[in-house]
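Re: weekly structure request thread

Next one in the queue (288 aa):
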Amino acid sequence: MERKCEEIHDAKEGMSEEIEDEKEGRGETVKKNIHVGEELLKLSSRQKFTLMNGALANFASSTCYTVMQPFLRDEAIKKDVSLTGAGAIFGCYEVVMFSCSLIIGSQLSRIGSRRCFYTGTFVIGVSSLSFGLLGTCPPGDTFLGLAVSIRMIESLGAAMMLTANYALATKEFRDNVATAYGFLEMCAGFGHVFGPLVGGGLYQLGGFGLPFFVTGPMTIVIASVAFFTLPNENKDEERPSDYGQLIKLAKIPAIPLEQLAVWVEFFGLCALSPTLGGHLQNVRFFKL
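Done, posted below.
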């Protein structure tokens, strides 16, 4: 009996110690989260301008990409372009992004992240503005060829901006890279919501050109702001890139899985772009 009482007493002491350790661990976790929040509030002016310009550029790029989704199908039909052609207008954007991002990333240290950032943003704005002029373009292959060409140029600018944007965020937020990336992706997601909403409304108000005449100049203004406010790069950090690192990166087993996941995700999203507008025409909205 005495032995059993001693075992029960030891077990209770062990459980109390485990509970105290868990409480201490939770307390340390809360302190760490508070510490991270304090660090985010104490950003330097260099970090603030970098994050501000990156957020605005991500928002503008996503808006320019999605602003045509509500009405491009109808305009393509008016211009004697098939749904396959409308899909090509959307799909060529991703093809150029896939082809150019790796090359731009390998040459970024020579081009300069800052220069690549505002140049790419400016190209996005000019391309979006130019796309609005296609309303007066002759129908058929002329419209399709010019639309695909402008979208490819816009995609090249987006590849430049995005590659430089995340490179700058990595340099400036070495201790909070995940938080900075999350904020930038949040702004990009907001652009994906804002683009179709505003694009459909402006199309109803002013026709085909008005959505692009709004988003294009807006993006050009953001590029101009970035030119004057984006902090200069430290020349000591600019070194020639190591091309062998790309091959080493591709050999990591997790990389192909992540690429497959991204491809499947964008395949599902982009498949809706040229076809969803036609299905929504038969949807009736009831007032509650």
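DSSP finds eleven helices and no strands in the chain. The domain at 49-280 is CATH 1.20.1250.20 (Growth Hormone; Chain: A;).
Next request, please.
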